[in-house]
Amino acid sequence: MTMLFSGFGGKSFGSPMPSLQLEGGAGYGEHPVKFIVSLGGGKVAAGGGGKLMLFAASGGQLKPLDTLELPGEGACGGGWSPEGRLLAVCLEQSGGLVLVKVGERSFERLTAIYAGPEGGRPGPRFRSAVFAPGGGTLYAAHTALDRLYIFSVSPEGKILSDRYIQLPEGDGIRQLLLRPDMGRMYASAEQVNAVMAFSLQSGEPVLMGKIPSLTPEYAMPSHQGSLCMDKSGAHLYVSNRGANTVTVFRTGADSPTGLERVTEAPVCGDYPRQALLTPDGRQMVCCNQRSNSITVLPVGEDGVPGLPQRVIPFMRPSDVTFLED
């Protein structure tokens, strides 16, 4: 597997810095890239600002294939449905949600544009989206309105209907993690530094409760970044931007959320936007925006990350994914 990481671009000592970087390979571009999604077959989608880009990755190189101008600003998250080859792009500034049909070498078309509701707190709006298996249902997190949206999507990528679950005001739902094999969905509540757990047993998400990721004694500013889980579903992880740690939860606990907080592990970097396990689960990669570093932590048999094995310099890293070789 090859690691690909993205960042907000910029300049260091007067030199342009790449916004996408293959591990051990060449970089590409210097404009902001907020998220990257592996599409399989060596293809990658990357989004940021008002643009969505398609790349082929091979031989340590990134080859640009297509660029799509989005109908809004703040592209910050993408949900991928391989069955329908649909990519859902969240626009956190404009407040919309866009469905894009992805071809082998180009973006075929915009299939649906959901403008989104008005109101709510100032700041980010749609932040993340995930498709259920089969691609017929799309879940999206709206931070400003504290809502979990549920869209019915046709095979052609048309939004057939939408509804939402109203969550506690001020929680700030951010990132979604779907585990249909476990009958669960998890979401980070970044404003209160807690993880929400939803049951999917009834076919509709039902909020079971939430569990803090930081101890009550922690008094400094901190907001959650990302969620990830190991393949077995035994451990759930959330990154904490400010506390600069990753909180480890054990699943299957006798609690309202089914989660038990195990510990916090330092990421040895500043402001971890994303923390993601490698496909084999033996390492965790943390994108530390403010320290311009990516730390690679070993993960023990107990599921707890240790001190870094590697530190990779990179300008304002944001996201990471893994590509098949």
Can you put this structure into words, describing what you see?
This protein is mainly beta and 325 residues long. It has strands at 2-7, 11-12, 15-16, 20-22, 27-28, 35-40, 43-48, 51-58, 61-69, 75-81, 86-91, 97-102, 107-114, 126-131, 137-142, 147-153, 159-166, 173-179, 184-189, 194-199, 206-212, 223-229, 235-241, 245-251, 259-266, 272-277, 283-288, 293-298, 310-313, 317-323. A hairpin with a 4-residue loop joins strand 19 (184-189) and strand 20. It starts with a strand and ends with a strand.
Question: In terms of topology, how is this protein built?
Answer:
Blueprint: E1 2-7, E2 11-12, E3 15-16, E4 20-22, E5 27-28, E6 35-40, E7 43-48, E8 51-58, E9 61-69, E10 75-81, E11 86-91, E12 97-102, E13 107-114, E14 126-131, E15 137-142, E16 147-153, E17 159-166, E18 173-179, E19 184-189, E20 194-199, E21 206-212, E22 223-229, E23 235-241, E24 245-251, E25 259-266, E26 272-277, E27 283-288, E28 293-298, E29 310-313, E30 317-323
Antiparallel strand pairs: 1-4, 1-30, 2-3, 4-5, 6-7, 7-8, 8-9, 10-11, 11-12, 12-13, 14-15, 15-16, 16-17, 18-19, 19-20, 20-21, 22-23, 23-24, 24-25, 26-27, 27-28, 28-29
Mean pLDDT: 93
Distance between the termini: 5 Å
Q: How many strands in all?
A: 30
Give a quick account of the main beta sheet: strands, pairing sense, barrel closure.
4 strands, antiparallel
Q: Strand content of the residues, in percent?
A: over 45%
Computed CA radius of gyration, to the nearest angstrom: 19 Å
Main sheet strand line-up: 5-4-1-30
How many H/I helices?
Answer: 0
Q: Class by helix and strand content?
A: mainly beta
Low-confidence stretches: none
Shape: globular
Proportion of residues in helical segments: under 10%
Oligomer: single chain
Note the run of SSEs as H and E. EEEEEEEEEEEEEEEEEEEEEEEEEEEEEE
